[in-house]
């Protein structure tokens, strides 16, 4: 497998694919037509070098992923806001300043909610066990597994929603396209259909690494004050995200048995966040890829000697 460095995410009835600074959103409109928008996303950080420094870049790339993800998800939803407006191109009449404020508020709320649910709540739940579990190390381990359990329960609950089920199918189509390319196969519906819907560079795996690495780091930091314990968990998030990003990058380009073993839990969780797509979804994903990535040139360069393409 050859890493293509292309990534993306599922949106409402569509796919966003990103390669370097270019991204494309392909959406299946209510009338069945596939609408593709291509644009450039320079990132929220003015100093691009920060997104290149190991263990620091993970934080900024994660923020970029969140901002672009919410932005493209909102964009795709506009196709389905009101019946009778499906033929109007979204985004033309939006106030840019208002849009930036709403985007910033959404990102801040999302981060705060995630920290509260997946970091602070497990700590308070595990602290209730103090009369029964005196060991700090054991309580920290229990807290970590609670965090993972809450994450899995959350995914299971949202996966029962019809819109989320379809989004998970598009998520599967996104992974299948990338796997198809990175295994040297021509990007056709037939080849994408038989490709795996799991990928080691998936955001789901990143979140799992964040949860798992958080357990390890917190074992080495002991403080007495409950308030300080909460503060430490929040303060460590950038460090945890930075390490997790490097592990994810390594997993995406390595077939080392140890790396593959570390990737297995995240790949297992991906069985919940991806579903098998139908051919119409695969068609959307292919158009999103082809708008930003020359897969023929990539495969000619990387697979011509081994696959004869």
Shape: globular
As a whole number of angstroms, the C-alpha radius of gyration is: 21 Å
Number of strands: 4
Please write the string of helix (H) and strand (E) elements.
EEEEHHHHHHHHHHH
Main beta sheet strand tally, sense and closure: 4 strands, antiparallel
User: Mean pLDDT score, rounded?
Assistant: 88
- Widest sheet, order of strands: 1-2-3-4
> Low-confidence segments, ≥5 residues, pLDDT <50?
none
| Percentage beta strand | 5-15%
**Span between termini:** 15 Å
What class, by secondary structure content?
alpha+beta
Total number of helices: 11
Helical amount: 55-70%
Please render the helix and strand layout as text:
Elements: E1 6-11, E2 14-19, E3 22-28, E4 34-40, H1 57-77, H2 96-127, H3 136-158, H4 162-182, H5 189-193, H6 203-218, H7 226-235, H8 237-253, H9 257-273, H10 279-292, H11 295-307
Antiparallel strand pairs: 1-2, 2-3, 3-4
Helix pairs in contact: 1-2, 1-8, 2-3, 3-6, 4-10, 6-8, 6-9
